[in-house]
Amino acid sequence: MKSFAYKAALATVTLLPLISSTALARSGGTVAFLMPDQASTRYEEHDFPSFKAAMAKLCADCKVIYQNANGDVALQQQQFNSVISQGAKVIVLDPVDSAAAGGLVNVAHSRGAKVIAYDRPIPDTAADYYISFDNEGLGHAISASLVQHLKATNVPAGSGILEVNGSPTDAAAGLVRNGVHKALAGSGYKTLAEYDTPDWAPPKAQQWTGGQITRFGSAIKGVVAGNDGTAGGVIAAFKAAGVTPIPPVTGNDATIAALQLIIVGDQYNTISKPSELVATAAAKVSEQFLDGQSPAAKTTLYNTPSELFVPAVITAENIKAEIFDKGIEKPETVCTGNYADGCKKLGIIK
């Protein structure tokens, strides 16, 4: 994996057009876009629409099949077999279970199809390409951002942090966790406990955190949560326990709910990962595979040619510039109801 300088806390993501509006490089072919779950709204709202739009520009006559496994490994295998039988020659796969996905890659290769691992890598069996954000880098970035905040607010060295990781079946979650561990190792703060959240489920993150609040109480000075869903569960646990103020909690994905929590001060940070970037890149690689080309690798991960985008850490300090000024989200979508006053304070709306 190409080394990452871990300056993502200061990095920005610019939505540059990866595809010319006039690019119609080829015609014909079937591509499948298989996503892992419906717990996050990103797949229906961002990833698939962006992928479909990019494919339409690259290959006007290509057929695009979309399926979502809703967190079910067996269902994803059925969907995978189905798109193979429908003639898919390229399958963009975000696996429910990264280990089980190795068998799907072998099936595809036996049928002459290419597999693009999307968002989550497939460590045990090399896919034909991997496209994602730098997951280890983002784990490091959210943790380093939290550490900087704790030091800036004079939280003493030796204070305790909780780690709420992602799903144990998600290899990308493992990379995020690796980055978290590296950032915290030399931070001067100690990890009180950590938890791998099954299926990234917010209720499970909330339940576990509730137990740790009972166990450690005010010794908890911060929480590294692997994504915005688990962060929401963590925050709900602190609110249920009547903890005020809530210790700073990290996140990842820049969901609307997380942006709102940052605006009102309940969540400390998140990661901006515009799905449009990875979805458009996946469409470009898909078209190249359909055209018989070998897409160039920007780096290599798990023996797989890869392209890894650099994420941007979002806090209240830069949320306006990074999210709203860049058009990633619109104020009228986020600054609703009880969040309007917070948006005014941050200059997002007048």
TrEMBL record:
GO molecular function: carbohydrate binding
InterPro entries the UniProt entry points to: Bact_Solute-Bind_Prot2 (IPR050555), Peripla_BP_I (IPR028082), SBP_2_dom (IPR025997)
Native source species: Brytella acorum
UniProt domain Periplasmic binding protein: residue ranges: 31-293
Subcellular location: Periplasm
Assigned keywords, A-Z: Signal
GO cellular component, as recorded: outer membrane-bounded periplasmic space
Family the UniProt entry places it in: Belongs to the bacterial solute-binding protein 2 family.
Signal peptide annotation: 1-25
Top-rank lineage group of the source organism: Bacteria
Record Pfam families: Peripla_BP_4
UniProt-recorded name of the protein: Sugar ABC transporter substrate-binding protein
Chief place where the protein resides: periplasm
